[in-house]
Specification:
By secondary structure, this protein is α+β, with helices and mostly antiparallel strands. It is about 20% helix and about 25% strand. The strands form four sheets. A five-stranded antiparallel beta sheet has the order 1-2-5-4-13. A five-stranded antiparallel beta sheet has the order 3-14-15-12-11. Helix 3 crosses helix 4. The chain starts with 16 loop residues before the first strand and ends with a helix.
Length: about 350
Amino acid sequence: MSVRFRPDACPGVFATHDAADGALARVRLPGGRITAAQLDVLAACAEELGDGSVHLTSRGNVQLRGLSRDTGELVGRLSDAGLLPAPSHERVRNYLASPLSGLAGGLVDVRPLVAELDAAVCAEPALAGLPGRFLFALDDGRADVAAEDADLCWQALDDSDGVLLRAGEPGPRVPRTEAVAVLVAEALRFLEIRGTAWRMRELPGFSGVRRPFRPVEPGPFVRDDGRRGLCVAPLFGQLSASQLRAFRSDVVITPWRSVVVPEYRPELTALSADSRVSACIGQPGCAKSRADVRADARRVSARAHFSGCERRCGKPRDAVDVVAVEGGYLVDGAWVSVEALVDVLGQKGNR
């Protein structure tokens, strides 16, 4: 069993992270869903209280950076918008759901299950004690979020039954009508046996099963009703306040730092970046970073993730690992100079 010697400091809104560029607040969005009105509130908060942008996360949430350490006004605005419905459980409302569920494909529409799970978790006082990194997932059968390292996942097998996955490992068959009750019971059991563990995979007998990576691809998609929707993927998962307002509709934030828009609007395609590169915030926003990784990442187009230090914040599973070190980068463990990055990553991308 993993032994932790420091407390879980996963940020939220009430307990922010003290970054080099100011306070960082993470706003949880169950299943990544957010309304047009809530997007407007986030845009105003970013513009008037933060660095002017909203930053998408690898769990389908959003972050605001460059905030004042006094977040009282932020808390008030987000609470009024319905984005903080359960203060005691704020940091544990971590739920992934298949982003296209109910729009295109999938065996079942898991959107009602997300709302049911959120209500059940928030109604159980003990679950406020879950680590902030503990992750639930509801997969509609297409095996997308089932691959996203959830501690507990219900994955549909047909229109009435699914399978329980613990740290990716398949368990019992569970009817859809019992999915939420089983997930809550399993989370309570984790609390009983976890010791100092933050994740299910840290318990004895669990190693974490890696499943095929199946993100929603950027671009138009055909809905089940024959109409079209759109997925946009902004560079580094960063959207300015004005870009956020441009959606003007309810959307879904995906675990791949992209946004699913139910109605296709061609003007929004400009929000997608051509590059497949991703990066942590780097210098000057993070004091632990050894480089301005985003400046270096802009030079390449390979499926790579640039990290300013060994923590590798936000690294996608399938990306080439690029970590800043003294005088250059480690690319999948091998030292590369900054000048040679484009060539080396280009070669890796062509394999």
